[in-house]
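=== RUN LOG ===
request id: a7f3
mode: sequence -> structure
chains: 1
length: 111
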Amino acid sequence: MENIMNRISIWGKICGIGSIILGSMSVIISLIATTLSGIITGIVTAFLGYLLYKAGTEASRYLETLSEDAIEYLLEHFAKYLLISGILLIFSIITTVFSLFVILQGVGSYY
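=== RESULT ===
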């Protein structure tokens, strides 16, 4: 268990900070280019990074204190991360299918 928590602690923080930085960069670039979709995806990416970072910090806290609360909060942050990722996955599948339908309709109109 200690080895797993150590990995979650390290990689949760690294991936979380990386996602926060990339999400923030996306927001800044999208503000300059004035694209709403880039702003939204940047905010979501940064928030997902925040959840990963918090899961990593809770894993660190567990390693230091062996507190059951730390595991509960780690799982809470990870559950939110999975929920948002699942919603985004469903949204991506729906928009991809819709886009393919529109593209195929457009190709069919040429013949």
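=== NOTES ===
Helices lie at 2-33, 36-65, 68-108.
Residues 87 and 93 are 10 Å apart (CA to CA).
=== END ===
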